[in-house]
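check this:
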Amino acid sequence: MGKGGEQGGDSGEPAAQIRFYTWEEIQKHNLRTDKWLVIERKVYNVTKWANRHPGGQRVISHCAGEDATDAFQAFHINPTLVQKFLKPLLIGELAPGEPSQDRDKNSQLVEDFRTLRKTAEDMNLFRASPLFFSCYLGHIIVMEVLAWLMISYFGTGWITTLILACILTTSQAQAGWLQHDFGHLSVFKKSSWNHIVHKFVIGHLKGASANWWNHRHFQHHAKPNIFQKDPDVNMLHIFVLGDTQPVEYGKKKLKYLPYNHQHEYFFLIFPPLLIPVYFQIQIISTMIKRRFWADLAWAISYYLRYFITYIPFYGVLGSLCLLTFVRFLESHWFVWVTQMNHIPMEIDSEKHRDWLSSQMAATCNIEQSFFNDWFTGHLNFQIEHHLFPTMPRHNFWKVKPLVKSLCAKYGVHYEEKPLGKAFVDIVGSLKKSGDLWLDAYLHK
């Protein structure tokens, strides 16, 4: 139970009652129908408001019963403005004798990380370069125009079409990285401007849904590589990941697929089918079921533009085949880049770590080069991106030394590897998990 108290003001009238809560009490409120969280020692009841949360109700629910201060700071570019939504939800504060962090987290590490963030802010590392993002959008548009000019001049022969598909794939992949920037509010100072351009880039340039992406991707950032909270590790029983899930499946004699061969059938299922099949079905169904009509309109504008451009050259069926092939190629690019930072890392159930430790356990970096930066959309700096999601990506290299120094101080592993090794590690990790499953399935 919370404890209350009253304080008299200068006027002699009693002030509003302040209720104090212990962590033991707060941690009980982590249910679907009962959600409390703590931000800067203040306790909020977000149960009724969660469904109206712009980032989706699930991401805020994942922080229920916990100190959400660092997550709150990470996702909002103007926390002061967001406070107006929190004020009516305030129900009290942590009791004076309670630590600021729950579950025996290292309070000094947490404070040092927050100091690091303040240092990054003072260095203007959260300020975007208009020139960088203008050039990035420009090179995507140039590729789209170049593709149309090429078939207009050279016709629709097999070689021309193959080159065209590669250009469109590159354009789509790079547009994917750009929408990621706007989705994370890392370009403009105002959230509303980021949201508007995000809908344009992901909708008109890619034919996808901004709301679908937001609700899915923010969960991944809040609880990376955590089963039942990160949708990116929900493999629908097709793969088993990490060290614990394979053993659990094996002990329960679950064999939806021969998981000891998952590192082999990975090549046939994951890279070729994720975007052209799974994501397309999920995006369309989500926009219709949740009535994201604005997103649907933007997506329709993409398909109208695409078919108006290419039907005169390839006809309806040919244009559909070209689009499917482009999605097929893009899917390979996307899967290898996005999974190399996460699948080889720790994947497990919730362990209630502090923000720095949880992100470091689930992410790794890829060595920097001009090509790696461009090819991955700067997701080769996955560690810095996860620690500071709203930081413009062209500043990751500047904050990297500070992050490495803090990790070294507390013995937190900072992993960085070459691009080729990162790709190999995906397959190696799947093989290791598959072997763990087979051993448990046969012998436990």
Remarks:
- Confidence is low (pLDDT under 50) at residues 4-15.
- The chain is about 60% helix and 5% strand.
